[in-house]
Design a protein that fits this description.
alpha/beta, 14 helices, 19% strand, flat
Length: 363
């Protein structure tokens, strides 16, 4: 999963990025790695992995991972070359979801690029730049299609969809506002539009508002904006995340407890991202390793097997499936089998979150 972190300068975007990727560095089983200066990889925390690894006496644990892209260059006029201009486009088009960090704190020592704190204005600035970037791409596509449809009528449905997209963007509305049928939705995904991607707003607040965010007037503004298209909002404190990222796991738990929090901003961000993208996890476990695999909710068994290797999907015979709760309750896979709780599922089986699976295949 790839998430792009966007936001105006001095809203806490890079602070949050550095904190969450530093937190990932402390994962004993999946080390943080920097692919480029603005890309970090963190493991997805999942306590179920530890249980399964102990049960199977696994040699190693391989968690699911998330790539975070710190998207630079987004200021007013970025689509016309201001700041780093269009350099951000190649990265942001590759992500599956956008995390939009919005400043929701007052601090005279941290200068705001627009001279004042105004979440609605800040969101609108970023959104407009992304809309303009998409509009440029789709306008060129429309020009090309106008010529091609004269000789190829099969392209008319695409032409009609592109026209509607351009009209939506020209009204300064993101492409995700567009209502599409299933066929149009498939086509829309191939365009890889930035504003068609789901958005998660991260309201960056002072420490005092972490446990009572509803008292923060700025957070209320962000939530009101997000409600228009059903986007999600999480509340984080960049400064606190920086502190958490320097602590050992046992110290983190104690620190969070002192603050009256049940989870870190990173955990909150990952959980919200999974929900936003409709993702679930299934597990494979054995003496060599216990591993988490991320799939879209509704994925059938053969396609889930394809996440491991295309040969397994191609030669799929059946899946031996155990619900995690049954394994946790009974303690061993042998006990699960003895109770008749291990199921044999075929090609039409829809995977569930927490499934422990052994795929049988033949190629």
């Amino acid at each position: 999963m790839k998430l792009g972190i966007v936001g105006l300068p001095n809203v806490g975007k890079s602070t949050l990025f550095n904190a969450i990727t530093s937190a990932g560095a402390e994962s004993a089983n999946y080390p943080f790695c920097t692919i480029e200066p603005n890309v970090g990889v963190v493991s997805v925390p999942d306590k179920r992995l530890e249980f399964l690894a102990q049960m199977s006496n696994s040699g190693k644990i391989v968690p699911a991972v998330i790539e975070f892209f710190d998207i630079a260059g987004l200021v007013k006029g970025a689509s016309k070359g201001e700041g780093l201009g269009n350099k951000f486009l190649s990265h942001i088009r590759e992500v599956e979801s956008i995390v939009h960090v919005v400043r929701c704190f007052d601090d005279e020592n941290v200068i705001h690029v627009e001279s004042s704190v105004d979440p609605k204005r800040d969101i609108d600035i970023i959104e407009l730049e992304l809309i303009l970037a998409d509009l440029e791409v789709m306008s060129k596509r429309m020009e090309r299609l106008v010529k091609l449809t004269k000789n190829d009528k099969s392209l008319i449905p695409e032409m009609e969809l592109v026209t509607r997209i351009v009209e939506t963007l020209e009204q300064e509305k993101p492409a995700r506002y567009l209502e599409c049928n299933s066929e149009e939705d498939k086509l829309l995904k191939t365009f890889n539009l930035i504003t068609a991607k789901p958005v998660l707003y991260a309201a960056n607040v002072d420490e005092e508002y972490l446990t009572n965010p509803d008292d923060n007037k700025y957070v209320s503004i962000v939530k009101e904006h997000a409600s228009v298209d059903g986007s999600e909002v999480i509340v984080v404190c960049g400064k606190i995340e920086e502190e958490i990222s320097t602590l050992e796991d046992d110290e983190k738990a104690e620190f969070l407890q002192e603050l009256g929090l049940s989870e870190s901003g990173l955990d909150k961000l990952i959980r919200a991202s999974y929900h936003l993208l409709g993702l679930i996890s299934y597990f494979t476990t054995g003496p060599m390793e216990t591993r988490a695999w991320t799939i879209i909710k509704g994925t059938k068994a053969p396609q889930a097997a394809g996440k491991i290797h295309s040969d397994i999907e191609r030669g799929f015979i059946r899946a031996e499936v155990t619900a995690f709760k049954d394994a946790e309750t009974l303690g061993t896979m042998a006990a699960v089998k003895e109770k008749g709780l291990m199921r044999l599922e075929g090609k039409e089986y829809v995977m569930e979150d927490g499934d422990i699976v052994l795929f049988r295949f033949n190629v």
